[in-house]
Amino acid sequence: MKMSVMAVGVVTVAWCLFFMDRYVLGEDDFQGLLDLEETPSPNPLMVDLTLIPGAAAKGAVCLDGTLPGYHFHPGFGSGANSWLIQLEGGGWCNDIKSCVFRKATRRGSSKYMEKTLAFTGILSNKAEENPDFFNWNRVELRYCDGASFSGEGQNEAAGLYFRGQRIFEAGMEELMSKGMKNADQALLSGCSAGGLASILHCDEFGGLFPETTKVKCLSDAGFFLDVTDAAGGHTIRNFYAGVVSLQGVEKNLPSTCISRFDPTSCFFPENLVDNIKTPLFLLNAAYDTWQFHQSLVPSSVDPHGEWNACKSNQSNCNSTQIQLLQDFRMEMLDDVKSFARDDQNGLFINSCFVHCQTERQDTWFADDSPLIGKKKIAESVGDWYFDRRPVKAIDCPYPCDTTCHNLVFK
Question: I need a labelling partner for 306 at 20 to 30 A (CA). Which of 171, 263, 330, 368 fits?
Fold first, then answer.
């Protein structure tokens, strides 16, 4: 499926019946976000898939029992001892049926993963596309467990391995052996389910390095809200409860959270970020398209399709619908207030209808990239990481931002 820039700030996306290949949410929610394909950067760097040979001996395997993998492009020059680890996203599976489906896709098996990936946006090796991290060692750790790299368990009858935590550990061990142990700078990042994983594993990642190493974390579109849906229900909470219970996530959740909340609550970033010791940057759209379509107004609460036009293009929303979206934005801002007061943390919340902005070149760093205060996302992340200035950027509410690359579905 293609999406193309039709005008400044608008990206159109065609509906596709096979979007579940990218976002596996739940059996009843397979109708929402799709497999998005950005307007490509010219001549992107293509990086080969490497499987982790020793992972099986550690039980660190994908849902179907195959080896996990990663894509690695070595750093050079001043970035030779700096490492950026991107955790891939792609939804979750919350019951046996959805996990069995998932294990026959690239999100559950390395048998179906692309043998090469384009490194664009924050993974680009071109200074004009990625000014601060282009010459770092850049890695994408593939996502094939369905619980944000946090599960621990197995279902023998269904042939399912819930080994996300072990995959993360095996991946880090592999990269340490490739030279990451000598890093003087490191950044753990991720998008969507990978953005949630970068929050869940942030302090664990920081603990891999000596105090002399500059270590920070970045979550892109990973701040999923424990929000009440449009019908007053708890669609995303109920879904996460299935993920946490089925995949044995509880044993890998932070003790600082589990001591105060139930396990499902500890899969929501709002209950995690205030206790993370490693510096963390939250990048999120205030009207995150995935959360709008799947958490706030899933198809299950809109049987007559009254939200279809609004969900396809925010300019079609009526005043009541816009108010619900503004309330969602305010809930997000309330949830990050305490986090934002910590000087070491960073924030970029723009008032756009989009999901994931670091891996797409047009939103990360391009001539017409989204701005807050005349700063692009790549510039803001770089300013924060290198301590050039504090970054606590919160956009004015929709529709004031004319620099957004909003997703328009048709």
Answer: 330
Half-sphere exposure in the Cβ direction for 380 (13 Å, CA): 29
Beta bridge partners of 11: 5, 407
Cα-Cα-Cα-Cα dihedral sign, residues 299, 222, 262, 345:
negative
SS (H, E, C) 291-327: HHHHHHCCHHHCCCCCCHHHHHCHHHCCHHHHHHHHH
Nearest-angstrom CA–CA distance, 402 and 398: 9
Angle of CA points 188, 191, 192, to nearest 5°: 130
Q: Kind and range of the H or E element at 99?
A: helix 96-102
pLDDT in tens, 333-378: 999 999 999 999 999 999 999 999 999 999 999 999 999 999 999 9
Give the Cα separation of 334 and 273 in Å (integer): 13
Give the largest Cα separation in the chain, rounded: 58
Yes or no: say if 65 and 111 are a contact pair by the CB < 8 Å rule.
Answer: no
H runs (alpha helix) in 125-209 = 164-177, 193-200, 202-206
Q: What are phi and psi of 141, to 5 degrees?
A: -90, 120
Rg of the chain over Cα atoms, rounded to whole angstroms, equals 20
What are the angstrom distances between the C-alpha of 108 and each of 27, 105, 144? 16, 6, 4
User: What are the residue numbers of the active site?
Assistant: 192, 288, 355
**Segments in 272-404 forming alpha helices (H):** 289-291, 308-312, 319-335, 337-340, 361-364, 377-385
pLDDT at 7 over 70: no
pLDDT band at 23 (very low <50, low <70, confident <90, very high): very low
Question: Which pLDDT does position 10 carry in this prediction?
Answer: 56
Q: How many CB atoms lie within 10 A of CB 46?
A: 13
In contact, 146 and 102? CB cutoff 8 Å: yes
CB 8 within 8 A of CB 31: no
The model's pTM: 0.93
pLDDT of 5 strictly over 80: no
When pLDDT is averaged across residues 177-188 and rounded to a whole number, the result is: 98
